[in-house]
Amino acid sequence: MKIKKIIKIFFCIILFVFLAVILYFGGIIIYDTSKDYKPESKEKINISGKACYDSPDTVISLLSWNIGYCGLGKDMDFFYDGGKKVRPSREDFQKYLNGVINKISGFDTIDIIMLQEVDTSAKRSYYTNEADLIKKFKPLYAFMFAKNYDVKFVPLPVFNPMGNVLSGMITLSKINPVEAYRYSYHSGYAWPKNVMMLDRCLIYTRYNFSNGKKIIVLNTHNSAFDDAVELREVEAYIIKSIMLDEYARGNYVIAGGDWNRNPPGFNQAKISDGNANCTACPAIDTGFLPKGWKWIYDKSKPSNRNVNEAYKKGKTKTTVIDYFVVSPNVEVLENKTISDDFEFSDHQPVFMRIKLKTDTIKPDTSALIKKEKIVKKKKIKTASK
Hints:
Blueprint: H1 2-34, E1 42-44, E2 59-66, H2 90-106, E3 112-119, H3 130-137, E4 142-154, E5 163-173, E6 179-184, E7 201-208, E8 214-221, H4 229-248, E9 252-258, E10 276-277, E11 294-296, E12 304-305, E13 317-319, E14 322-326, E15 330-337, E16 350-356, H5 371-374
Parallel strand pairs: 2-3, 8-9, 10-13
Antiparallel strand pairs: 1-6, 2-16, 3-5, 4-5, 6-7, 7-8, 9-14, 11-14, 12-13, 15-16
Helix pairs in contact: 2-3
């Protein structure tokens, strides 16, 4: 009789736990769905701050850096990439934050700075408004922010949930922009995973040039992780349509950021700084853009490391996923990855200096592609990693 009673109690406990888990996750999914961030396809971005120059010179310098929300420095691993940690200790976070802010402050001669993964209010970064801090330390730059991650509660991992995340991207400019827009990438996971993941986008910034043409600068942060291959393809064709469209109108086009895949022709064997190397496949196809377009990256140094473990040079796998692409009417004068052994982020800054060609180049108007028609909104079912 006692055994039957014990078995009955045991099954009641199991049922109670099962129902509690269902109610817990079900409640979170319903709540996150009701609060889901749903941006428009194109939204105007407020331009704040005061730029130094009203119009650019023929030579322009640019830098792109995914700062990893100041939470993915050299001693950090991350649960979603095979590690164990959800966020760094408060002490480590402060160290990474100070390092990132100091480096960005030191980039005072660079005309345009493109940043990704900048938190404004998130548990993972101790609710620090990193965007406000960056703006404060770059008073001579115009400031543009686009939100791409707004989730009220991420319930994973179960026993130490990531919690709420509010984050985005920044473009800083010493040159006064004419206008700036947030372009949504029409890609996303299937429900309910989509309500807990990023709403990817790019920041489009337009500048006037002395010869009457426009300069278009695109700051991109494409989908990550192994289960987002199709999402990256959709995003690539959207940014391609914008680039070809603008170039066909006679404009200069520069795109850069965190593409989360290797550039065309990437060869991991050419990284020669003592790091272990890997690929982020599939790389962008070598024929993805028409002849004359140039993919710009430092072949000798990695821009990103795996965060399945704390960084150990020579052991931790590294690759190149941060880089630029420029239209045929742009000449590249210099390009390098600014190596710091991933001290403050899982990415290293990438730098480029360009010259705008002022001789007449008649663009191929057959390349004109209407942005709004290139890819229709697409939901892709993917398995969780």
